[in-house]
Amino acid sequence: MSDDPETARQIEELAADDRPLLVLDVDDVVLEFIRPFPHFLKSRGFALTLASFRLTGNIAETASGRLIEQAEVTALLGEFFDAQAEWQSVTDGAAQALSTFGGRAEIVLLTAMPHRHRAARRAHLDALGLNYPLLTTEMAKGPAVAKLRGAKGRPVAFVDDQPYNLLSVRNSVADAHLFHLMADNSLRAFLPPTPEGIVSVEDWHEAAPKIVSALGLQSNSRKSV
Asked: CA 44, CA 221: separation in Å to the nearest integer?
């Protein structure tokens, strides 16, 4: 898998860090996506009917019932991300969980979205008090996580709602601790069983202590998670 050169540039801007690394997806991990997105679609004259774990083929024009094509889905996603501050709130438990790590891990947000939305997402995250470094990528996440880790082999944990992103990281960082977290667990019904070596967690309340254990943070903390 090849690197996204813009993602690589963003990583190079980060200060060198040798703490254990926690990399987080944003949509439906840190920020709600699948709950507010149907409301956004309704405001634009569309409706979402989740018959499978994908957007294309599941969005219809309300007036005609026509299922819209990939290009139209992409355009609507672009509009949503432009206006994300109006729609997206913090996933339940995420902010509290991240605060419990108390600076003992390097926390980086890695979101798969067009780079042009980075500034809007950065502003929204800052307004929500989530001032962790933000990286955007338009390519696979695995190479980005490998580059973030660096050459020292520090412990890595990665949290995402999309199985293909978790597998991408496993392919690039074989010893990464992988966690499958979904803001809306009802969508798990559309997915095959979680691949071996990936830990499914119901929510942030379950995820936080597992991440602490995976990254070996217990001995550095007096806080309970």
From this structure: 48
- What six digits make up the tokens of 199? 């830990």
| Coil vs helix vs strand at 50 | coil
Q: Looking at per-residue confidence, does 51 or 35 come out higher?
A: 35
Rounded Cα gap, residues 100 and 206, in angstroms? 13
Asked if residue 134 lies in contact with residue 122, where contact means CB atoms within 8 angstroms, the answer is yes
The string of pLDDT tens digits covering residues 47-89 is: 998 888 899 999 999 999 999 999 999 999 999 999 999 999 9
What are the strands, taking DSSP E only, across the chain? 21-24, 46-48, 59-61, 106-112, 134-137, 156-160, 177-181, 198-201
Tokens representing 209?
Answer: 């202590």
CB neighbour class for 206 (10 Å; exposed up to 12, middle 13-18, buried from 19): middle
| Helix 163-172 with 141-149: angle, nearest 10 deg | 50
Please give the Cα distance from 199 to 133 (Å, whole number): 24
Written as one letter, the residue type at 45 is G
Q: What is the CA radius of gyration of the chain?
A: 18
- The span from the CA of 126 to the CA of 121, in Å, is 8
Cβ 198 vs Cβ 182: under 8 Å: no
**Max Cα-Cα span within the chain:** 59
User: What's the pTM?
Assistant: 0.94
**Bridge partner residues of 61 (DSSP):** 46
Q: Which of 141, 137, 188 is nearest to 28 (CA)?
A: 188
Cα separation, 214 vs 20, in Å, equals 10
